[in-house]
UniProtKB/TrEMBL annotation:
The keyword Methyltransferase applies. GO terms for biological process: DNA alkylation repair; methylation. SMART domains: HTH_ARAC (SM00342). Keywords: Activator, DNA damage, DNA repair, DNA-binding, Metal-binding, Methyltransferase, Transcription, Transcription regulation, Transferase, Zinc. InterPro entries: Ada-like_dom_sf, Ada_DNA_repair_Zn-bd, Homeodomain-like_sf, HTH_AraC, HTH_AraC-typ_CS, Me-P-triester_DNA_alkyl-Trfase, Tscrpt_reg_AraC-type_HTH. Residues 83-181 form the HTH araC/xylS-type domain. Its cofactor is Zn(2+). One of its GO terms (molecular function) is zinc ion binding. This is Bifunctional transcriptional activator/DNA repair enzyme AdaA.
């Protein structure tokens, strides 16, 4: 049955209290997702929460189970969670992509996401995003005549001086030098 949101349940949600995991599930109206109380996802707003006793009741109301805390079954192993983050970065690295946004999309706190990612991939999410951007920039430098500014924007780094600095620091040459060495005629 659907339960009300009480102060006690609310505290369990915002403190990710696992001792309540057998007692209820909470669904968030704005995202359409439901979670266990212990889920490390971003705390919802009080007014957007619905509380269910059973996962099946949330599903009947057309909420989807959270991929992070898997309220209908086993918890998501960290390796799979990191694979989700990687996948998200791979398809969004050309956009503005902050750790906070990534954490929202992958349902975890920025701190927890950063640590888990680093443990499994041996680099931080931010380093991984930069690597993706620089790899793409190298490809564009070697295969196109686009300007350095256009390339830096295209790979998600609209601040061109910063892009040049990071490129040089990582590869040992400036984007122009790199292009001279690698441009296919
Ligand atoms: Zn969750």
């Amino acid at each position: 049955m659907e339960l009300g949101i009480t102060e006690e349940r609310w505290q369990a949600i915002i403190n990710n209290d696992a001792t309540y995991d057998q007692q209820f599930f909470y669904a968030v109206k704005t995202t359409g997702i439901f979670c266990r109380p212990s889920c490390k996802s971003k705390p919802p707003r009080w007014g957007n929460v619905r509380i269910f006793e059973q996962a099946s009741e949330a599903i009947r109301e057309e909420f989807r189970p959270c991929k992070r805390c898997k309220p209908t079954g086993q918890r998501l192993p960290d390796r799979e969670w990191v694979a989700q983050m990687t996948q998200y970065i791979d398809s969004h690295y050309t956009e503005k992509l902050s750790l906070a946004h990534l954490a929202d999309m992958c349902h975890g706190s920025p701190y927890h996401l950063h640590r888990t990612f680093k443990r499994i991939k041996e680099m931080t999410p931010v380093e991984y995003i930069q690597q993706k951007r620089l790899d793409k920039a190298k490809e564009l430098l070697a295969q196109s005549n686009k300007s350095i500014a256009a390339i830096s924007t295209e790979v998600g780094m609209p601040n061109t001086p910063y892009f040049i600095t990071l490129f040089k620091k990582t590869t040992g040459s400036t984007p122009s030098e790199y292009r001279q060495l690698h441009l296919k005629q």
